[in-house]
Amino acid sequence: MENNGSPVRGPAPTAHPSDAATAEPAGDRFLAGRTALVTGAASGIGRACAEALAAAGATVHVVDRAAEAAKRVAEEIGGTAWVVDLSDPDAVDGLPDDADIVVNNAGLQHVAPVHDFPPERFALIQRVMVEAPFRILRRTLPHMYEREWGRVINISSVHGLRASPFKSAYVTAKHALEGLSKVVALEGAPHGVTSNCVNPGYVRTPLVEDQIANQALAHGISPEDVVERVMLERTAIKRLIEPEEVAQAALWLCSPHTAYITGVSLPVDGGWTAH
Ligand code: NAD
Questions:
Q1: Alpha helix positions (H), the chain
Q2: Which residue, 71, 108, 175, 272, is most buried by CB atoms nearer than 10 A?
Q3: What is the best residue among 2, 38, 45, 51 to mutate for testing ligand 1's pocket, by most ligand atoms within 8 Å of CB?
Q4: Residue 16: what pLDDT?
Q5: Using CA atoms, how far apart are residues 265 and 255, in angstroms rounded to an integer?
Q6: What are phi and psi of 114, to 5 degrees?
Q7: C-alpha angle 16/21/27, rounded to 5°?
Q8: Are strands 150-155 and 101-104 parallel, antiparallel or unpaired?
Q9: pTM of the predicted model, to two decimals?
Q10: Which of 64, 209, 211 has most ligand 1 atoms within 8 Å of CB, for mutation?
Q11: What pLDDT does 211 receive?
């Protein structure tokens, strides 16, 4: 939570009808009256999701450990910033439990062969990318069940469906998130709650920009060659994905047209998993 234990609020959000809990508001603002909690919302895909959900009318809890960036995003979209380190279970349990939509997005990468992989780094990645989503869902699902409507979006990865060498913690965590997502789909179905994964290939975000820089150094090649020869090797569509494209897939899974889609993993990967 924000340093002194209280959230940082942006300007009051506009027009959220209090009686919209069961109705499906039509039009562009079909999420008016809904509350969303997005982790890792200060940057990249999480930020794009927070913006897209807010533009569709949701009130957004912007959760991130990056205080200034989280506050900026919250101010921009009329949401509330929660400055939390998701590797701290107590802090995670202090997050609000009133979300109708949860986007489990925060994540980090570490690249090393298994025999050199630091165990504490492995454990940290599981805490942030598996345990925190579990803890957030165990506290927010009762609220969704009470309202008989909920949407859980887990930002997984092609690495939730396939493996790559040197990414043991990340691939393990994403496969675990896939399992959690399916269990929540089964348990949530009688309560109007869907749970799905979105599985991007390489997205143009700081997380990937860092990997490009590191790999360029490690292999002694240019950043452009890292993108073309390493990252896009398996991808049929030869460009990085933009965060907004992933956010639109997440938003679509919250729309009135997708209530029957649950327990699936939606690749947004330019054909990566078609191999
Ligand atoms: P990013 O680095 O731009 O953003 C990640 C955000 O998570 C940051 O704001 C960071 O502060 C936050 N975060 C990290 N650890 C945290 C912690 N302990 N507590 C609180 N916040 C924390 O990354 P991104 O590329 O937008 O990635 C978002 C998600 O998308 C991740 O789960 C990632 O695995 C997944 N993903 C990314 C790509 C890609 O190519 N960028 C591809 C597939 C999946």
A1: 44-55, 67-77, 89-92, 119-126, 132-147, 168-188, 206-219, 223-225, 243-252
A2: 272
A3: 45
A4: 34
A5: 16
A6: -55, -45
A7: 60
A8: parallel
A9: 0.92
A10: 64
A11: 86
> Are the CB atoms for 252 and 187 separated by under 8 Å?
no
Which protein residues are within 6 Å of ligand 1, measured from CB? 40, 42-46, 64-66, 84-87, 105-108, 128, 155, 157, 200, 202-203, 205-208
Mind giving me the DSSP string for 197-246?
EEEESSBSSHHHHHHHHHHHHHHT--HHHIIIIIITTT-SS-SPBPHHHH
Under the banding of pLDDT at 50, 70 and 90, the label for residue 169 is very high
Give CA–CA dist 42/72, Å, rounded.
Answer: 8
pLDDT at 14 over 90: no
Task: Give the CA count within 13 Å in the CB-facing half-sphere of 100.
Answer: 20
Dig out the tokens for 264 from the structure.
Answer: 């699936």
Could you give the 3-state DSSP secondary structure of residue 101? Answer: strand
Say how far residue 220 (Cα) sits from the centre of its chain.
32
What is the amino acid identity at position 36? A
Q: How many CB atoms lie under 10 A from the CB of residue 196?
A: 25
CA of 109 to the centre of ligand 1 (A): 8
Q: 10 Å Cβ neighbour count for 184?
A: 26
**Cα 138 from Cα 237, distance rounded (Å):** 38
pLDDT digits (tens, 9 = 90+) for 31-54: 999 999 999 999 999 999 999 999
**In the 8-state DSSP scheme, what is residue 167?**
B
Domains and CATH numbers, the chain: 30-203+241-268 (3.40.50.720)
